[in-house]
Design a protein that fits this description.
This protein is mainly α. The protein is 69% helix and 4% strand. It contains ten helices and two strands; from the N terminus they run ααααβααααβαα. The protein has helices at 2-13, 15-19, 23-49, 61-85, 97-130, 132-146, 155-176, 180-196, 220-223, 233-252, and strands at 89-94, 212-216. The chain has a two-stranded antiparallel sheet. Helix 5 packs antiparallel against helix 8 (180-196) and helix 7 crosses helix 8. The protein is globular and about 50 Å long.
Amino acid sequence: MVPVFFVVLIASAGLASVAGSNALAALLVGVATAAGGLMVYRMMVRRLEKRDAAEADWGGLVPGVLRGAGLGVGLFAVTIGIIALFGGYRIDGWGSFLGALATLGTMTGAAVAEELLFRGVLFRLLQEWAGTAVALVLSGALFGALHLLNPGATLWGALAIAAEAGVLLGAAYTVTRTLWVPIGLHLGWNFAESGLFGTAVSGSGAEPHGLLRGASEGAAAISGGAFGPEGSVFAILVGGVAAALLLRVAQRRGRIVRFSGR
C-alpha cells in the first residue's frame, strides 16, 4: 500500500508547476489526485484488511473536511497574527484570486495524499500496534523527515513540522477516528499559509500564489525564515497547544490507545 501513496505524493507535488500557469487546471488536477488517492486507499483497505474503510466513509467527507479546514485556517491565522505582532510578517499588497484558486487545487492533492499515507496508513497501524504515544512520536518524526526533501528544507524546519503538524494531525485523527478532519486541518492550514497570506510552505521553494502578498522579515526564529512560518517558534507553540487540547478530548472519550507490550 505504501508505494502506491508515494506515487500519489509525487503526483501532488507536481501540481506546483501547474499552479502558476493555469488556475482551473491546478484545481481540477488537485481534486482528481485527491479523489484517486481516496479510492485507492479504500480499495487497498478492503483487499488487505478485509474491511470497509470506516475512517474514510464518504458520508463524513463534507462535515469532517469543513470542520478540519475551519480549524486549520483559524490556527494559522492565529500563528501569523502573533508572528506579525513580533515583526516577522507584513503584507506587501494584493495577490490574485486565480492564484489562490490554483493554490487550493495544489494543496488539496497534497493534503489528501499526505494524510492517507501518514495518518491513514502509518499512524493508524502504529497506534493499533504500539499505542497512541508511540504512533504520535514515530509518525510525527517521519512526517517531519519527509519535508527534508523540499528545496528550502532545514533540520530545524523538519523538527518544527514534526512537533507542530505531525503531532497535531495525529491528535486530530485520534479524537475523531476519521481521516476527514485531519485532511481538512492540513488543507486549511496550508491554504491559509500560501493561498490567503502569501507565505512559503514548508521550504517547498514554490512561489506563493494567494490573495495577499506576504513578506517575512526579522529573526528566523520568529518569522520562520525561508522555510516559511512553520519554522517559527510561534507555530510550534500554537500547534502544540492545539494538539494537547485535542488529546485531552480524546482521553475523555476513551480514544487513547495504551501500549500493551504485545
